[in-house]
Structure formats: structure tokens, C-alpha cells
Amino acid sequence: MIAFLNFELKDKHFFTNPFLSSTDGYERYASDEWILTQIKALTYKVVNRIILLDEKLTYNIYSGLGGIVYALLRAHKYLNQELSDENGVTNGAAFYYYLDGFLGINVTKAIFHYIKKESFDISATITTVVNILMPEKETIFDGRCGQLASILTLQKEANQFVLDENEIHKVLTKVINTGYDCSVKHLYESPLAFPESNYSGKHSSVSPLPYPVKLLGFLKGLAGILQMLLSFWNYLDDNKKSLVKDTVEWLLEKYEVDKASSSAEKDEMKDIGELCQLWIVAYIVLDDEKYLNAADACCEQIWERGISCEGPGLDNGVSGNGYAFLLMYRLTKNEKYLSRSKMFSLILMDPEFDKLMKESENPFSLFEGWSGALCFLTDILDPKNAQFPFIPISFPQ
């Protein structure tokens, strides 16, 4: 094993990348045997953690027990252990939320029973969720695009096809109508716009309103919404396709401008690794090299920017950034991306990183903690089938 890695604090968000100049000679440390050992060690760490009361009361897949169970399901195929029970996956969360509620819990249950070769039909639950009168929320985190992500996840990980074409059309129409109406009403510069729900009033100026940078992101913003709409491209009519494509192109132009900027806005775009997923899906669906180039530029920016101080999780953490490289490897088969993803595994499991990273309120969770790292390590062992947890991409066969 490497004797030590040198982590120097670059700014309030990042350490310098210890492998920036070269990965030559280091990949041998991240062998399959070493990664398997780390999976087993991390699984032991997660399973034998002290479960505090706050964690017992948090059931969602984002920061709670549901996501931890999902990570253990991912690791299960590498361990010689029986699946015993769902270990705390219960129904105590908001009914229609995906990452932050009951919907994600039920998807995890479906995956659990599928692995055990047991029946667990979630179709009725999903149908109820998409027909419920819910707030005008469209994000993956707690809105209708979370419903779309759940449909993809169930198809790929539990072999369940849970909604008919009409129901899927209904969800897509609600999302796009909300985005179009908001853009027109508030004169946003993007063709589709999804601002904070507490924004009220009409923009009085005749000039376009700038899109808030903090709402451009993946889980709670525009990038994630667009990724889900692209993922159901064949369900859209020509008018809806035009709105989605034009908004993707607008966001790409904004990304290219902000990438070269040193403004305060640039500091807010910390989830650039997750933007990479949008460009990958846009390239697959729209078949335009500029999106592949944007995905590669995202990876380069992550690599040069440094190592996130936010911890090991998926949301702005080291695992989330590492997934950009894994997914690019799956798309392109370029070994550079796989090599760099392995460097992220070395960083994650380095004791010095564990000491220096910011302390999370949910240190073992999927999106904020070590369960995200556990999923990332399992996908490094099987990179040709790598998928970001709960938000999968339909890669070409």
C-alpha cells in the first residue's frame, strides 16, 4: 500500500489532487484484490457502526437507513453472507418523495426482494404516487423527476416495469408544462425553468431573468430534471423535445461560460461531477459530439480542481466525483477514466483523508457518507456495468 498521500488544503472546498501530475505506478495499488478487501472492511465498518437515535428515525435513501441498506445490497455479491432482513427499511417518510421519502424506501424494498428471488410488486405504489396531488416540485430529490428516476431504477435493478405509457406521459407533461409556464411567467432566459417554490410574483423587466446558479444542479436543480426528461426522450412529442433540447443547449452554453469564470457564481457550482452525467445522457440521446466533449471537460475540471473536502458521499463528495470517471469509462472504454477512478478509491480509503475531511451529520449515509463510497468501490470492480445509485443511465448496448 502507498505509505501516505499528501493532502494540502487548496480552499474551503477542496484539497489538492495528489495524483494530478501523474497516475503512473499508482494503479497497481488499487488492484481488484485490494478493492475487494476495502469493500469487506467498509461493509464491516457500516454494519457495526453505533446507530444513534437520529439515524433510527431517518428512513430515507439520501441520508438515512434506506440508502445504507441499498449500499449493503450492492456489496452483497462480494460477500459470503446471507441477506437476513431489511434492517430498518420502513415506511416512515413523506409518501411521494424519492431520495428524501417513502418512494425511495419502496424501491429499495423491491431491489431487496428481487435479489432474494421473492415477489414484491411495487406497481400499485408507483401508480398512486404519480397520481397524487403534490406540490409543484419537479426535482429528482423530492419531485416528479424522482418518480421518473424510480421507474428507471426499478427496470434496471428489480426487473419491474411499473407504469404504462399513458402514466409516464402524464408525469412528463406535468414536468415540462411547469417548466415552460415558469419560464414564460418570470421571463427566465432558459426555455424551461424550475425556480424555488417560494418564489412569487412576476418579473417586471423586459430583459431575461438570470437563472439562479444554485438551482442549476443535479439532485435539486435543472441538470437532474433535464437528465430525466432526456431519459424518456422517446415518450416526448416534437414540441416537448424541442423545449428540452433547447434548454440543454442553453445550460451547456452557460456551463462553458462559467467554466472560464472566476466569479462568485463559479464557487456555487460544486456539483460539477454530477453535471457530467447530464452531458453523457445528452450525448447518448442527441448524438452530438459537443456533449461528449463537455463530459470530458467536466472530468478534467474535477481532476484539476482537487479532492472534495465534503467527505466520501455521493452528493458533492469524493465518490460522487469519482463516478463521473467511472461512467465515462463505461461510455467510452477509455482506460484513462478507469485509472483515475481508481485513484479516487485510493484517496477515499487513505486514513489521512478520513482525518481531514469535513464531518458529516450522517457519516454512514449514501449521499453524505461511507455508504456512497461502498457503492463506488463495488462499481470499480465491475466498471462495464457501473451506475450512479438510484439515478441510472440507459447506456447503449
Please, could you describe this protein's structure?
One of its GO terms (cellular component) is plasma membrane. Belongs to the LanC-like protein family. InterPro entries: 6hp_glycosidase-like_sf, LANC-like, LanC-like_prot_euk. The protein has a two-stranded antiparallel sheet with strand order 1-2. The chain contains 16 helices and two strands. It has helices at 32-47, 53-56, 65-76, 102-115, 123-131, 144-157, 165-186, 222-231, 238-259, 264-268, 272-286, 289-305, 318-332, 335-348, 351-356, 370-381, and strands at 14-15, 307-308. The model is unreliable at 86-93, 197-205 and 262-268 (pLDDT under 50). The chain is globular and about 55 Å long. The two termini are 36 Å apart. α1 (32-47) packs antiparallel against α16 (370-381) and α6 (144-157) runs antiparallel to α7 (165-186).
Would you spell out the secondary-structure blueprint of this structure?
Elements: E1 14-15, H1 32-47, H2 53-56, H3 65-76, H4 102-115, H5 123-131, H6 144-157, H7 165-186, H8 222-231, H9 238-259, H10 264-268, H11 272-286, H12 289-305, E2 307-308, H13 318-332, H14 335-348, H15 351-356, H16 370-381
Question: Number of DSSP strands?
Answer: 2
Which parts are unreliable, with pLDDT below 50 for 5 consecutive residues or more? 86-93, 197-205, 262-268
Order of the strands making up the biggest sheet:
1-2
Structural classification: mainly alpha
